[in-house]
Amino acid sequence: MSDKISVLYTEEQVNARVRELGEEISRDYAGKSIHIVAILKGATIFACELVKRITIPVTMDFMSVSSYGDATESSGVVKINKDLDEPLEGKEVLVVEDIVDTGNTLSYLLDNLQKRGSASVKLCALLNKPERRLKDVKVDYTGFVIPDAFVVGFGLDYAQKYRNLPYIGIVEPGADD
Ligand code: IMP
Ligand code: MG
């Protein structure tokens, strides 16, 4: 049995939206520089594509947190597996995440990062699934608002697979071809 994946947003649509987000962020932070905090592993591909479209000075750091194992349901427990390499003091921080689902991860993370003395902390998420929200999270920049479905591609995985897909697809686990 193989997983069935149906296209939700094509490669062209995702690339176009990432370009728009980069332009919007560059306008909003004009005259400043931003410090991107990308959340491993899911946000890496999005963060890399996004920074290429940002025209103001950018620095990047990475953090790894886990709230999911290989399952598709959030445990509600967030653990920091790898913290940032650099302090956030005085920086305009933009957290870049793949998806806001229940909000468990981001509500914990934003709270944690806001205590580190930065000038500001904002959130940019490629995808937002508001129907699934359990905790309130302010998403400052959203790529796409999507329905309650499990999606893969552009960095998002199902059991660590499909991060490399250049488009975003809905996965139906173990569906027959
Ligand atoms: P939350 O804490 O429930 O908001 O979920 C955060 C994490 O769950 C995301 O950073 C993803 O890694 C993962 N996740 C949630 N929904 C999906 C999905 O549809 N596809 C792949 N990963 C997902
Ligand atoms: Mg993630």
Describe the model.
Helices cover 21% and strands 32% of the residues. The protein is α/β, with parallel strands linked by helices. The chain has one domain: Rossmann fold, CATH 3.40.50.2020. The strands form two sheets. Strands 4-3-2-5-6-7 form a six-stranded mixed sheet, sandwiched between helices. The site of magnesium ion has 3 residues, from loops.
Describe the structure in brief.
This protein is of the alpha/beta class and 177 residues long. It has helices spanning 11-28, 44-51, 104-114; strands at 4-9, 34-40, 58-66, 79-82, 92-100, 120-128, 141-145, 151-152, 168-172.
Overall residue-averaged pLDDT value: 93
| CATH structural fold name | Rossmann fold
Unreliable residue runs: none
**What is the chains' assembly state?**
single chain
CATH top level label: Alpha Beta
Q: Are any ligands bound, and if so which?
A: inosinic acid, magnesium ion
Question: What's the β-strand tally?
Answer: 9
What is Rg? 16 Å
| Beta content | 25-35%
Largest sheet: 6 strands, mixed
CATH architecture classification: 3-Layer(aba) Sandwich
Distance between termini? 7 Å
- What best-fitting shape do the alpha-carbon axes yield? globular
Strand order of the largest sheet: 4-3-2-5-6-7
Instruction: State the order of secondary-structure elements, H for helix, E for strand.
Output: EHEHEEEHEEEE
Number of helices: 3
Please give the share of residues in helix. 10-25%
